[in-house]
Design goal:
CATH topology of the largest domain: Rossmann fold
Radius of gyration: 33 Å
CATH architecture of the largest domain: 3-Layer(aba) Sandwich
Number of domains: 6
Structural class: alpha+beta
CATH superfamily of the largest domain: HAD superfamily/HAD-like
Oligomer: single chain
Length: 755
């Protein structure tokens, strides 16, 4: 082979290596819309608002990228892009100084970061304490020779301490400067290095002042602030970390040839048969094929009582199989499972941008040029005023340090993280951080009826006299329909008669809007509306409910009832007690809507089509009201999207859940006032944090410019401001929401008069 051929081979190999990240990125991406995919990257070096703005701006400028969103808490980036091939996301970030890799949901770089911070803190604290011993002797009036010796000894201790403990700040600052940008660590690094450099200069020239103690102590206090910030972030994100801990590592798959093999979670695909032992968590959303067990489904329902699992039961990923082995069929991949969706919702809530956060980010963006200019002008001003360049540089160092906007950068996202955690603990998933801000502004609530105020699960009226033979025939016909009334008939038959064999599919026909028709033993049976099922001259043609008819003659009448959701009355009382107006908009007929409205004491409108709900919400908006829409059905999706904020139960139709800002997982309707309460408290804490952060700079900067702050005091003040802001955000997790519960009572039933 010639050297040219060798060169071509090497070039081809390099091309393959360069394209490999793109191929992996394409495989790891997921489709979220027509010609729209999303890729999730882990970027461990993200640590401040400047990083967020830089990464989102750089990735957003790539061809094909529609949206890039950074989550500071998780140090992850979600990118939505179009096209057949993914944009060069990883390569672009690497060129800008950010090492990135595909996020598989398992890496936790923060744990390594915490260890690094603790080691750096220990080294700087040890060095600071020893240098302080020499400083005390110098301050006590040591002779010049002794003073110079102690200064040199202090410098020998400070140099390795700064080299090791300062890496946390120096690496970040150098990476930013090397790529033509700046971040919060640049002025910190400049301040620490200037203090050390001045001390070396003073010691070399026999000067009386050295700041080795200040430079190392400064680093020590800065590290205290950053370590506490890191620990508090981890505490705030305990909900997301707990969810990740519920994910199974893999499952035992039953292969087509009868053999068994263990597959890691990412390799599980829909259609695979999985053997699930007692004590194992469900790896992906599944359908039970064989076996019977008890299931801990508290993750989904919030109820501690185990749920009975039989063949045909659907299982959500992350739930726990308690008592018996099960054979299940995977219904979704790991990335599309219930647990993965909850994780995405939680992280989307943390990464969302509210109005207040956008203000804080705009202010932080101006930080670097303004603080560097302020420090330079301060130094120049003191030199011109006093001629003492030593004092001028010392004051400039203090200005550089004290103005670090860490508190401002944390003011909003920390509240969002804690609020998302608080809502998750209450069984409420937030899809967008901005939704919390809109939710806090709500002054009117519009509620759907079926599936929202009521369970949406009709059942036969208790005590209804229905002949067992007629019930069995009705159940055999109803088995071919997914209509709620058909399912209610089937459930009642199973409870009274046991399993009922269905009618052969070829003998049953469905008449939408009317009912089911079947031929059995030469007779024509109909199950549905009375005016359709019965002959014109047959008695009972005007009866309500669902009837079973044979050759046009009435055999049985089935009446149904629905139940209000748990705590529906308490939820409505809590909303009205907090100054919110509430009303019911339903597409159902007037009698059942009126019955629910009277039970709850609410105004109502019935037979509302989707466009009518949207028009009503728009009318309320024109009146100056900010409406929260709570609904669950396909017909509620336009209204959910049109409202100022929206909520949907977990059993809502897919399109309804996608349109809603928040999804509540539990049966209780108290989720609505709870979410409103948390949103309002979060808004209060955000305002308090912004006041603390801005007030701190407004007070601290003039004092530092006037020369009343040393670099050491500046470091302590800056760290304390960040700690105060984070601690204030954490107050939300300990508050009790003002919701009054009524004494426990059976949920009222609401008779249905509609066939």
């Amino acid at each position: 082979m010639t050297c040219c051929a060798a060169s071509l081979a090497i070039a081809a190999q390099g091309s393959d290596l360069a394209s490999r990240p793109r191929e992996e990125l394409l495989l790891a991406s997921r489709e979220i819309g027509p010609d729209l995919r999303q890729s999730d990257l882990s970027v461990p070096s993200i640590h401040c608002g400047a990083c967020i703005q830089r990464i989102e701006r750089v990735l957003g400028a790539l061809p094909g990228v529609e949206h890039a969103r950074v989550n500071l808490s998780t140090r992850r980036v979600s990118v939505r892009w179009r096209g057949e091939a993914p944009p060069p996301l990883i390569e672009t970030l690497a060129a800008d100084g950010y090492a990135a890799h595909l996020d598989d949901g398992t890496d936790e770089p923060k744990d390594r970061t915490l260890g690094q911070l603790i080691r750096a803190l220990a080294v700087s604290g040890f060095a600071a304490s020893n240098i302080m011993i020499f400083s005390v002797s110098i301050w006590s009036g040591a002779e010049p020779e002794t003073r110079d010796l102690f200064h040199w000894l202090s410098g020998l201790i400070a140099l390795p301490a700064l080299a090791y403990a300062g890496q946390v700040f120096f690496r970040s600052a150098w990476s930013a400067l090397r790529h033509g940008r700046t971040n919060m660590d640049v002025p910190i690094s400049i301040g620490v290095l200037l203090a050390f450099g001045m001390s070396v200069y003073e010691t070399a020239h026999g000067g009386p002042h050295a700041y080795f103690d200040a430079s190392v102590s400064l680093l020590f206090f800065l590290l205290i602030g950053r370590t506490l910030d890191h620990v508090m972030r981890e505490r705030a994100r305990v909900a997301v970390k707990g969810l990740r801990g519920l994910a199974s590592r893999g499952a035992l798959v039953l292969e087509a040839d009868g053999s068994r093999s263990y597959r890691p979670l990412p390799e599980l695909e829909p259609g695979m048969t999985i053997l699930l032992a007692a004590g194992e968590r469900v790896p992906v959303d599944s359908l039970v094929l064989d076996g019977r067990s008890d299931l801990d489904a508290s993750l989904v329902s919030g109820e501690s009582a185990p749920r009975d699992v039989v063949p045909g039961t659907r299982l959500e990923a992350g739930t726990l199989n308690l008592t018996g082995p099960l054979v299940v069929r995977a219904e979704a991949s790991a990335g599309d499972s219930f647990l993965a969706e909850m994780l995405r919702l939680m992280e989307a809530a943390e990464a969302g941008r509210s109005h207040y956060q956008r203000i804080a980010e705009r202010v932080s963006r101006l930080y670097a040029p303004v603080v560097h200019l302020a420090a330079a002008l301060t130094c120049l001003g003191w030199v011109l005023a006093t001629g003492d360049w030593h004092r001028a540089i010392t004051i400039a160092i203090a200005v550089l340090i004290i103005t670090c906007p860490c508190a401002l950068g944390l003011a909003v996202p920390m509240v969002q993280v804690v609020a998302a955690r608080r809502l998750f603990e209450a069984g409420i998933m937030v899809k967008d951080g901005g939704a919390l801000e809109r939710l806090a502004e709500i002054d009117a609530v519009v509620l759907d009826k079926t599936g929202t105020l009521t369970r949406g699960e009709p059942r036969l009226v208790a005590g209804e006299a229905v002949d067992e033979a007629a019930l069995g025939i009705a159940a055999a016909i109803a088995a071919h329909s997914r209509h709620p009334y058909s399912q209610a008939v089937s459930e009642a038959a199973r409870a009274r008669l046991g399993p009922v064999p269905p009618v052969a599919p070829g003998d049953v026909s469905d008449h939408p809007g009317s009912g089911l028709e079947a031929r059995l033993d030469g007779a024509l049976w109909r199950l549905g509306r009375a005016d359709w099922a019965l002959a014109e001259d047959a008695p009972g043609r005007g009866s309500d409910g669902v009837v079973l008819a044979r050759d046009g003659r009435l055999v049985a009448t089935f009446r149904f009832e629905d139940r209000l959701r748990e705590d529906a009355r308490a939820a409505v009382s809590a909303m009205t007690a907090n100054g919110l107006s509430a009303e019911i908009l339903s597409g159902d007929a007037e009698p059942p809507v009126r019955q629910v409205a009277q039970a709850l004491g609410l105004p109502w409108r019935a037979r509302m089509v989707p466009s009518g709900k949207v028009a009503h919400i728009a009318e309320r908006a024109r009146e100056g009201r900010r409406v929260l829409m709570v609904g669950d059905g396909l017909n509620d999706a336009p209204a959910l999207a049109a409202a100022h904020a929206s909520m949907a139960p977990a059993n809502a139709a897919d399109i309804g859940r996608n349109a809603a800002d928040l999804v509540f997982l539990r049966e209780s309707l108290l989720a609505v006032p709870q979410a409103l309460s948390v949103a309002r408290e979060a808004r209060t804490l955000v305002r308090e944090n912004l006041f603390i952060a801005i007030g701190y700079n407004a007070i601290a900067v003039p004092i530092a410019v006037l020369g009343y702050v040393t670099p050491l005091v500046a470091a302590i003040a800056m760290s304390l401001s960040s700690i105060i802001v984070v601690a204030n955000a954490l107050r939300l997790s300990g508050r009790t929401m003002p919701v009054r519960r009524e004494p426990a009572a059976p949920a009222p039933t609401l008779s249905s008069q509609v066939a």
